[in-house]
Amino acid sequence: MRATPRALSLGSERFVFIWFAVVSVVLVAFVFRSPAIDYRTVILGSVLPVLEAVAGGPRVLHSLVGAVALLGIVMVATVGSRLVRRRLLGIPIGVMCHLVLDGSFTQTEVFWWPVRGLEFASGQIPELEHLGLALILEVVGVAVGVWAWNLFGLHDRGARDRFWSDGRLRLPDGPDPR
Fold first, then answer.
1. Angle at 173 between CA 91 and CA 93, to 5 degrees
2. Residue 4: left (phi > 0), alpha (psi -120 to 50), or beta?
3. In angstroms, rounded to a whole number, what is the distance separating the alpha carbons of residues 107 and 165?
4. pTM (2 decimals)?
5. pLDDT per residue over 115-167, tens digit each?
6. Domain range summary for the chain, segments of one domain joined by +
7. I need a labelling partner for 127 at 20 to 30 A (CA). Which of 88, 135, 139, 177 fits?
8. What is the per-residue pLDDT across 3-27, written as a single tens digit (0 to 9) for each?
């Protein structure tokens, strides 16, 4: 059965962005502990799969194959360009964080596409199927964001300017990414 495209509501009850963006940055910062990651691209990658709602349901970016293919594309496209690679790697990393944070891995037909068949799963993207929880996740995302703001020293204008200009964060108990 093929999913039919749904109209998207612009109301806050229809989208989850803060949860994915903020929690992905925190997870990547703690897992990789690298001051050289461009966290702006992690944010972009973490919210990119939400755009599949326009297509009416989960598609390539909600699957493991899609995330790994995106990683492969970045690796091949940036051969010989280390700086560009380092910046763009945040996109597939963010998409992979999204898959964990929205629970795509719990939906076999979504996560394992096309291994389980070439037809896309019917229904809405996972993050829109549990709208009641989505509001709670957004509130948690805001709370984590406030905590991360202090953790990464973003109250300091220099730290904020560095984040906006090159995507770097000062990691706690780690080197300053100058």
1. 10
2. beta
3. 38
4. 0.81
5. 766 776 666 555 555 667 778 888 999 999 999 999 999 999 999 999 999 99
6. 15-166
7. 88
8. 333 333 333 334 678 999 999 999 9
